[in-house]
Structures are given as C-alpha cells and as structure tokens.
C-alpha cells in the first residue's frame, strides 16, 4: 500500500451565489485522508460541512463554485479532470451516502435496479453478479429479508432500512472512499443505533476510507478516527477522536461540548389536589378510519413542563392536535382548569382559544413570509386582547423585549431577514402575545443548532418562571428532556407507556421501551456504541429490539 | 388497484352528468341564435306558410322543453335522431336513400377525424417528448433556444398560415405530398395516409410546442431533487440521469398536457380541415350550426365533450399508474 494519501485537499475555497453575488462558504481549508481512515467533519448548519464533503468528490451543487485550491483523489486532480474522467470515478471509486435516503432513492425504481446501476454502468460487474452481491451486502448490513428487500420500491421500506440500503448501494463498486452526509440525522434514536453499527462494521470490513459529516458530536465520536471541527467555513481544529473529546483546545469546540450541560433544577412534586391547567383524559383519536391514539391520559400543571417523548409516529403531535381542537378526539375529553373543553376548536370560546397556544418546529414555515415581525406579533395582540394603536405597539415592543430582541431594530423586518433562532423567538413571542396559560412546544429546537437551541431552552425556562406558564414539550431528543422537563410522558404506537417525574424516569428500573430509548441516545464516550452493542447482543439492537416489544 | 377502479367509475358517472349539462347548454344556446332551420333553408323570401309547414314537419313548432326531452329520450335509447337537412331533402325528393340518421351521417366523418388525430399523435407525441428531453439535457444552450423559438413560433402562427406554408413547400415548390386531402370510404390505407400527411404535419406543428415545453419544464423541475443528485454522484451519464431518473417521475404533468392536446386534435381542427378539404367532423359541425341543424350539432357536441372527458380520465389513470406509490401500496 502506498503512503500517499487517498484524498488531498489544499487551500480549498468555495463560494455560493445568493443575492446576485458570490459569498464565501469555505475559506481555504486543507484536508488529508489516508486510505481506510474515517474522518469526522462536524459543525453547525451553515458551517460548510456538506459543501466541503461534496467538494472532496470534485462536485459542487448548482450555485456553488470552487474559487481556489486543489482536490486530489489518489493522485488525480479532480478539479482539472474532464467530466468523463470524473464520471468514471464517481460511484465506482468515490461514493456518496445522503442525509435523507427516502429523498435520495428514486421513487420510480426498485432498490435493486438502483443498486446495480452503478456496477453495471461502470462495467464492474454484470447485472446478475451485482444482484447477488447486493443480497450479500444487505445481509452484512443486517437488513431483514436480504433476498427480497431489493425488489421493493423505496416507499415500501422504512427510513432506517433505506439508509442501510443506500450504504449498500454506495458499497456496490467497493469504492475507496465514501462520503457520509449526515446519514442518521433524520432517524429516530433507536433506529440510528442500528444504522451506525452497520455503517461502522462495513467500513471496517472493506477498509474503506470515509468522510463522516454530522452535527452530532456523540455520533461522530463513535464513527471517526479523527475529527475536524468547522465554523462558518473555517477550520477550528483537527485532532484524533479521543484527544478531541478529552482535551479540546479551542473555545468554540469547548462550547460545543458544554451545550449538553444545561439543566434546570428539579422542582418539588405537584401538590396533591391542585387542579391541572390541562388534563388529557382517556383520549382516543383517529385520522379518518385509522386509529392513532389509544386511551391517552396525563395532566399538566401550572408553571411546569411536561415532556412528551417517543419516536416519529408515536402520536405525540396528534395528542397536541387533540388538545388544540384541530383534531377532535373520537373518545375521551380535554379539561382546561377543570372544565371540559369542546372537542372542536370552532366550538371553543375566544378565551378558551387564548389559553392554549402553540410554537412550531419549523419557524421558517410557521411565520408568514410577507408580514413584518411587528404585524406577526400584533395580530394575536389585537385578536385576543383587543388592543389597538399605541397600546398595541407598546404590547408588541414589550413582547419583543421579553424574547430578547431589540424592538426598534426588529419591528419592521421580514422573517427572511432573521436567523433560525431569531425566527423561533418570534414564534414564542406570537404565542405569548395571547397571554396563555399553556403552550405546546412541538419539537421547537430540533431544527436548530445546539448552541442556538440552548438559547431557546433558556428563554423558555425564564419565561416559565416569570409567567408561570405550563409547557407541553414534544420532542424526540432526550438531552432536551433532561434539560428542561419536570415530568415525562413516554409514548409508543399511540399509547402512553410510562409517565412520571423526570428524576424517577431517568432512574432505573424503567419500562423496557423507556430503557431502550434512554440507552439509545449516543454519548460522548467513543466506546459507547461498542459497549452498547456488546451489552445488547447483535440481534437485539435498534429496530429489532423495538419489534420485540 | 381497487381504488383506481372506484376512481374510474366515479369519473365516468361524473362524465355522464357533464354530458347531460353540455347537451342542455348547447340546446339552449342554439335556440337562442336568431332564426331556425326553416328560416335558414327557405331564405328571406319565404312565405309564412312554407316556414310553418317545415317547422311542423320537423317538430320545431313544439315548445322547447318537450323538444329537448323528446331528443333526450331518443338519445337514451341510442337514437340520435335525424338530421333536419337530410329529412328535409328526403321529404322534398321523395327518396329515403343515403344517410338519414345523425349516427349514419356522423360516423364516417368521426372516423376520419380520429384517423387524422391518430396520425398526428403518432408523429407529434414522440417528437415533442424527444425534443423536450433534449431541451432539458442541453438546457440554456443554442439547441434549447432554437427548439423553443421554433415550436413557439409555430404555435403562435395561425393554423391556416402554417397550412399554406406547408402546402407551398411540400406540395407546390416540391410536389412531395398532395395538397388536397379528399379521402373517401374504401380508399387504400397507404393512400389515405399519404393524403392525410400534410394536415397531420400542420397539426403537429400546432401541438408540439405545448407538450415539448411541459416535458422540458417537468424534467428541469426535478433536477434539483436529491435523487437526481444521487444519480449524478453515481457517475451516470447526463442522458441516463434525465431519461432513467428524471423522466419517469415527470410523467404525470406530461401525460395531462398530452391528453389536452389530443382532445384538441379531435375537437378543434376545423380550420385545418377546411384548408385541406379534409372530410372531418369539424366541418360538418360548423355547417350544421350555420343552418341550425340541432340534432347534428347536439351529437357533435356530445362527441367532443365525451372525447375531453375520456381523454382526461385516461390521463388521470395513467398519472396514477405512473406513480409507484399508488401502483405498489405498502
């Protein structure tokens, strides 16, 4: 084996086109990858991780260009190579695994047809050889029914399985390098484990070099030999994984590590006999004829936060829709301050509507892009509180101050002129404008970077203390639960499987499912995945474990 | 597949309702036109008695409602009535030979129209889709612009103008094709085809632009999707990326535009028929409106409406079938 590196990037600069001019995305980064090495690229959104990862393949998306630097793959200058030469490398010697397998598999073709396309077009294998190989790879990646799964269409396969099928597809020509672009970000924690373990195994087995892009430190700690931290297009530091975790040298890296330390003090237990702000009692719900909730009951008290956790499809958001009256339950009832709420929001009084507000996951789509910040917040102020003119303006200004944004500066801006975290703050202000008792926070931090998310959590905690708000906090992120919850409700398949105070919930013994959820959250220890797999046994991880329940 | 069948049945039922409404609208509209068949056929110098006698013969003296329901009752039994013009001619000459019922009169004309539409579709659809794919592949190049400008110019020109240009170049200057399309029953297929080729080419020029531009737009629309990026990152050739990965997912809008254009080929080609003296249904329709020959007008309208409904239904079904999520449920 030669000593020359597989990938050698020197002084690469990338620019993206927006507002009619080229803005820098990556400002001159060096990257070297040895054969068989796994390099983790981490950073917040907008740090340029994906752009850099794609540039390592000599590829840029539309509206992005490489303005300077060199990219060499095994001695071939990818920036000078012809399109035909690059096509000969892509898929064959350099492969890519995308963030969302569901979007990156072509919906019109079966998995197998897409898998064999690379090897057949590159002349590596015949179709029948490649099919046999695919089945072998599916087996190695522990996909269920390896003989048969390739003959399904992408929509017939679950997200975690698709992500593994995509890894198999990337492996189809036995490339020297695979770029993994956030391959597990869209997955639930229990599914993530399975995919992580599969990817790690197969990369080791074929001694494939990889660039593993993610924003999740704990994940990269399991996967990478070496970690490179990016911030706004610049490299912060590079070190091997253990050194980076135990002794980060840069302040930014340290701050990333510290995010997970935010935790609210535990509150005393709720006094018995106090009336909950919202009480969900034996609620069943269905979409059309498909039942989605079964006998869901829990209480939420003033000044406290109830975290509702569970995987996607477990019924968390549906419960929220029942409470707001968007989806009238088929059985059971919702109580506000001990009084039964009409099931349909159209039948509720203005005051009842005012008391229950919502903050959404995607602040981007939840704010009207054509309305200024002032108009967005003023609307509920006028609607619920009946304020107009100068009084209305004063109230909006006070709300903006509450969410720590300078009123004079932000009042006339449009949502597009705000960052993701600021938009989410506007969402909070809009909910507060109604002066509610109870706010549903639906995955409010999951689209945000860790540092920004922490700021939002601190803001919500402060507002709760000041205004004795009650929060229902829907999330799948257990770190967030640890940070802010007082009580925890665990949901699975439309049922509440366990509920109780946070302290008790995070202490064993748990319900088996809670235990699985808790133990599936990646930890910063680089040996965590290895130990966990050893503990659970190969056949009993992730999906398989869930199915057994 | 069960739900596809339900959709088809639902749409067919709705289609029948649409046909009923169309027949009412047309009946009322033709009655609103000044003059009726009797006045038209007899001209300005006609005596009151003569007009009244023809009206009595044809039942035009009955109130509108009873005439409509009489006609409707006939249609429901499969009888589209008789053409006023033919009946009048028969009563005048005392013979009953030739086509007297509307059905007999329309059938050969309709067959001709379908033949022309078919020939046009067989040329135009593959040409349009190929051009669209190539325009998407070489987007923003000279080829793309030339293809766009040519097809747009041809769709923007009046049909008769295109027709005469084609006649000039293909029949007069270079006598390759006949400029008259006077086809008749019992003609050999090859001769029929040859005679229909010029009108078919004219119509091709008219319908290609729309289909080609939709193909191009639908494909380009998908080029930013992650699975297209994935296909490119697998090192596939640009042609393969477009034909294998983009086109199958772009089919639904393309199919809909094709259906609309095919419907146009059946219902809207009267100008081309006139230029080439092609005995299609369009000419018959216009002539019948002129002399207020209501039974023929009604039957033509029903055929046109049915063509639209059936083609759109076919398009919807094919769009559904082009979606693997619906073809292969979980």
TrEMBL record, chain A:
Output the Gene Ontology cellular-component terms: plasma membrane
Keyword Nucleotide-binding carried by entry: yes
Cellular location(s): Cell inner membrane
Record carries keyword Phosphoprotein: no
- Give GO terms for biological process: peptide transport
Q: Which residues form a coiled coil?
A: none
Q: Which family does it belong to?
A: Belongs to the ABC transporter superfamily.
Span of domain ABC transporter? 7-257, 278-518
Q: Which GO terms describe its molecular function?
A: ATP binding; ATP hydrolysis activity
Q: Which organism encodes this protein?
A: Yoonia sediminilitoris
Q: What is this protein called?
A: Peptide/nickel transport system ATP-binding protein
Q: Which Pfam families match?
A: ABC_tran, oligo_HPY
- InterPro entries with a match to the protein in the record: AAA+_ATPase, ABC_Ni/Peptide_Import, ABC_transporter-like_ATP-bd, ABC_transporter-like_CS, Oligopep_ABC_C, P-loop_NTPase
The way it spans or sits in the membrane comes to: Peripheral membrane protein
Q: Which UniProt keywords apply?
A: ATP-binding, Cell membrane, Membrane, Nucleotide-binding, Transport
Automatic annotation (TrEMBL), chain B:
Please list the residue ranges annotated as the ABC transmembrane type-1 domain.
110-315
Gene Ontology CC annotations of this record: plasma membrane
This protein's record includes keyword Transmembrane? yes
Transmembrane intervals: 12-33, 114-138, 159-177, 197-224, 250-276, 296-321
Keywords of the record: Cell membrane, Membrane, Transmembrane, Transmembrane helix, Transport
Q: How would you describe this protein's topology in the membrane?
A: Multi-pass membrane protein
Transport found in the keyword field: yes
What is the top-level taxon of the source organism?
Bacteria
What does the entry give for GO biological process? transmembrane transport
InterPro entries hit by this protein: BPD_transp_1_N (IPR045621), MetI-like (IPR000515), MetI-like_sf (IPR035906)
Q: Where in the cell is it found?
A: Cell membrane
What PANTHER family would the database entry show? DIPEPTIDE TRANSPORT SYSTEM PERMEASE PROTEIN DPPB-RELATED
Q: Which family does it belong to?
A: Belongs to the binding-protein-dependent transport system permease family.
Q: What is this protein called?
A: Peptide/nickel transport system permease protein
**What high-level taxonomic lineage is stated for the organism?**
Bacteria, Pseudomonadati, Pseudomonadota, Alphaproteobacteria, Rhodobacterales
């Amino acid at each position: 084996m030669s000593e020359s590196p597989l990938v050698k990037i020197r002084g690469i600069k990338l620019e993206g086109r927006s507002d009619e001019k080229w803005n820098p995305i990556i400002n001159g980064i060096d990257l070297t990858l040895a054969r068989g090495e796994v390099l983790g690229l981490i950073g917040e959104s907008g740090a340029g991780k994906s752009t850099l990862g794609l540039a390592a393949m000599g590829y840029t998306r539309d509206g992005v260009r490489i303005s300077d630097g060199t990219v060499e793959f095994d001695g071939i200058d990818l920036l000078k190579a012809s399109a035909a030469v690059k096509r000969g490398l892509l898929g064959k010697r350099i492969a890519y695994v995308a963030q969302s397998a569901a979007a990156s598999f072509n919906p019109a073709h079966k998995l197998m047809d897409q898998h064999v396309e690379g090897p057949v077009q590159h002349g590596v294998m015949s179709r029948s050889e490649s099919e046999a190989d695919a089945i072998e790879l599916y087996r190695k990646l522990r996909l269920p029914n390896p003989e048969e799964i390739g003959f399904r269409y992408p929509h017939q396969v679950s997200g975690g399985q698709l992500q593994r099928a995509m890894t198999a597809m990337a492996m189809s020509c036995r490339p020297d390098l695979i770029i993994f672009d956030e391959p597990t970000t869209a997955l639930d924690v229990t599914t993530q484990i399975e995919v992580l373990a599969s990817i790690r195994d197969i990369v080791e087995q074929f001694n494939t070099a990889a660039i593993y892009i993610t924003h999740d430190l704990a994940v990269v700690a399991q996967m990478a030999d070496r970690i490179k931290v990016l911030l706004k297009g610049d490299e912060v530091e590079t070190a091997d994984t253990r050194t980076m975790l135990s002794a980060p040298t840069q302040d930014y890296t340290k701050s990333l590590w510290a995010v997970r330390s935010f935790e609210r003090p535990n509150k005393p237990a709720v006094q018995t006999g106090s009336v909950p702000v919202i009480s969900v009692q034996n609620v069943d719900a269905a979409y059309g004829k498909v039942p989605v909730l079964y006998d869901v009951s829990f209480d939420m008290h003033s000044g406290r936060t109830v975290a509702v956790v569970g995987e996607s499809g477990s019924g968390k958001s549906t419960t929220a829709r029942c409470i707001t009256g968007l989806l009238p339950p088929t059985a059971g009832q919702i109580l506000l301050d001990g009084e039964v709420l009409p099931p349909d929001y159209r039948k509720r009084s203005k005051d009842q509507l005012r008391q229950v507000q919502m903050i959404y996951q995607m602040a981007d789509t939840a704010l009207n892009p054509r309305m200024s910040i002032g108009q967005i917040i003023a609307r509920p102020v006028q609607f619920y509180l009946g304020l107009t003119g100068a009084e209305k303006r004063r109230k909006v200004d006070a709300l903006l101050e509450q969410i720590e944004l300078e009123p004079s500066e932000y009042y006339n801006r449009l949502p597009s002129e705000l960052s993701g975290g600021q938009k989410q703050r506007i969402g909070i202000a809009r909910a507060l404008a109604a002066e509610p008792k109870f706010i549903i926070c639906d995955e409010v931090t999951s689209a945000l970077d860790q540092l920004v998310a922490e700021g939002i959590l601190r803001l919500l905690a402060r507002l709760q203390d000041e205004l004795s708000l009650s929060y229902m906090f829907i999330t799948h992120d257990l770190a967030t639960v640890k940070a802010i919850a007082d009580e925890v409700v665990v949901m699975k398949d439309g049922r509440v499987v366990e509920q109780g105070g946070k302290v008790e919930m995070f202490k064993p013994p748990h319900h088996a499912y809670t235990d699985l959820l808790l133990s599936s959250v990646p930890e910063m220890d680089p040996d965590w995945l290895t130990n966990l797999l050893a503990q659970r046994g190969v056949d009993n991880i992730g999906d398989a474990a869930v199915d057994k329940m | 597949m069960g739900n596809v069948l339900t959709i088809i049945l639902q749409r067919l039922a709705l289609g029948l309702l649409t046909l009923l409404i169309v027949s009412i609208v047309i009946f009322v509209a033709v009655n609103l036109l000044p003059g009726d068949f009797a006045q038209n056929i007899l001209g300005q110098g006609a005596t009151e008695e003569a007009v009244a006698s023809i009206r009595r013969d044809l039942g035009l003296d009955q109130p509108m409602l009873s005439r409509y329901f009489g006609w409707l009752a006939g249609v429901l039994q499969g009888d589209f009535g008789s053409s006023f013009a033919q009946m009048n001619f028969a009563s005048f000459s005392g013979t009953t030979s030739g086509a007297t019922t509307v059905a007999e009169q329309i059938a050969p004309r309709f067959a001709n129209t379908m033949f022309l539409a078919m020939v046009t579709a067989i040329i135009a659809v593959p040409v349009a889709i190929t051009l669209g794919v190539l325009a998407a592949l070489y987007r923003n190049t000279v080829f793309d612009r030339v293809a766009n400008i040519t097809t747009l110019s041809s769709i923007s020109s009046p049909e008769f103008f295109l027709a005469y240009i084609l006649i000039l170049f293909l029949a007069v200057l270079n006598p390759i094709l006949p400029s008259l399309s006077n086809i008749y029953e019992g003609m050999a297929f090859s001769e029929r085809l040859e005679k229909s080729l010029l009108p078919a080419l004219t119509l091709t020029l008219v319908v290609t632009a729309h289909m080609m531009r939709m193909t191009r737009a639908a494909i380009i629309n998908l080029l930013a999707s992650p699975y297209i990026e994935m296909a490119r990152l697998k090192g596939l050739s640009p042609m393969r990326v477009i034909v294998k990965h983009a086109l199958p997912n772009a089919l639904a809008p393309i199919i809909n535009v094709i259906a609309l254009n095919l419907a146009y080929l059946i219902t809207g080609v009267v100008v081309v028929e006139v230029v080439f003296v092609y005995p299609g249904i369009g000419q018959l329709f216009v002539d019948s409106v002129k002399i207020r020959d209501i039974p023929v007008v009604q039957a033509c309208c029903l055929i046109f409406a049915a063509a639209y409904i059936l083609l759109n239904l076919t398009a919807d079904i094919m769009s559904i079938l082009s979606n693997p999520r619906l073809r292969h449920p979980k």
